[in-house]
Q: What sequence folds into this?
């Protein structure tokens, strides 16, 4: 699986910090990646690694203050997002990038019907469209049964999986060039997770949009993403074609994440959590940010931070010892 084509998004050395405490929180600390048109890219890593802040930055959605874009550049369709005026930014948010988040229940408004909420999303983005017909079309597209009846339902009358389908319908109502799905299945049952992933994959192909899939579960990446970026402590520590990274992870953090993937089949698949915790980005350790948790760490890792080593434009790793470990 590969997607070529021109770059839709290019992020170069992005730095996002939060101010408020004693030290600035370096949530995103020199992140670079790109997404081609129609491509699905996965951003993976544990909670607190900076995935959501990176994703929000693509539409300049990080609240300022306390946030601050301290450096770097984001290009969307060649336009500089961090330098955009408000009117252009509104177009970007309304027409080019859409987001789906983790908690569909809390993102839907409990006092309005599903139909009303989908129609509102359509009216905002495409005022000339026949909102009702489009809403029904969207509901069919995301696999909501009996859409005519469902239009009149309130969010609490739907299951979590159906609610997430409604959120996805609203997100694709503007036919975005990029859909950002930030932990879209984390709040759902395992079987429903697979269905929502299938739906996203199907929509991505049918609508030809690019997708940024954010997850801490590497099990979800395998069949969905063309390429993946592994994030730790505000940095990208490994990137490559998803099947290759999953088959032969090079960074010790990626390996540890893979070992922590819950397996459904078999009885021996006991979940192995990674020892230790993600460092507080206001107090990052010296050297490699992963060294305190890395079973392979040597003296050099404690004092010196590995630089990004690109093996190809698609594939790279940030570890002194990846060759020895291979
Ligand atoms: N609005 C905010 N104010 C202060 N700190 C924030 C804010 N949003 C995120 N952070 C911090 O930025 C870091 C990265 O957060 P986030 O991108 O949400 O991680 P992830 O999505 O990988 O779980 C965390 O340490 C988090 O506490
Ligand atoms: Mg997040």
A:
């Amino acid at each position: 699986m590969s997607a070529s084509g021109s770059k839709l998004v290019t992020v170069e050395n992005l730095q996002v910090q939060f101010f408020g405490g004693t030290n600035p929180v370096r949530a995103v600390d020199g992140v670079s990646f790109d997404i081609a048109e129609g491509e699905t890219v996965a951003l993976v890593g544990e909670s607190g690694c900076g995935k959501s802040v990176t994703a929000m930055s693509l539409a300049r959605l990080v609240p300022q203050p306390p946030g601050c874009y301290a450096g770097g550049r984001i290009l969307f369709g060649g336009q500089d997002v961090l330098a955009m005026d408000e009117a252009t930014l509104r177009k970007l948010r309304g027409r080019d990038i859409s987001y789906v988040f983790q908690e569909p229940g809390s993102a839907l408004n409990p006092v309005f019907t599903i139909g009303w909420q989908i129609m509102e999303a359509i009216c905002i983005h495409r005022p000339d469209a026949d909102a009702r017909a489009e809403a029904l079309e969207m509901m069919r597209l995301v696999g909501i049964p009996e859409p005519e009846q469902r239009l009149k339902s309130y969010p609490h009358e739907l299951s979590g999986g159906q609610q997430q389908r409604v959120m996805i319908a609203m997100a694709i109502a503007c036919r975005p060039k990029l859909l950002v799905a930030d932990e879209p299945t984390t709040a759902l049952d395992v079987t429903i997770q697979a269905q929502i992933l299938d739906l996203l994959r199907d929509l991505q192909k049918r609508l030809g949009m690019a997708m940024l899939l954010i997850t801490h579960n590497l099990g979800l990446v395998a069949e969905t993403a063309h390429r993946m970026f592994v994030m730790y402590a505000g940095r990208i520590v490994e990137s490559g074609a998803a099947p290759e990274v999953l088959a032969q992870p090079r960074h010790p953090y990626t390996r540890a994440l893979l070992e922590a993937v819950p397996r459904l089949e078999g009885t021996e698949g006991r979940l192995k959590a990674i020892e230790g915790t993600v460092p507080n980005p206001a107090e990052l350790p010296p050297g490699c940010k992963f060294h305190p948790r890395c079973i392979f760490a040597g003296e050099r890792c404690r004092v010196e931070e590995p630089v990004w080593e690109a093996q190809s434009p698609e594939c790279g790793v940030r570890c002194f010892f990846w060759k020895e470990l291979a």
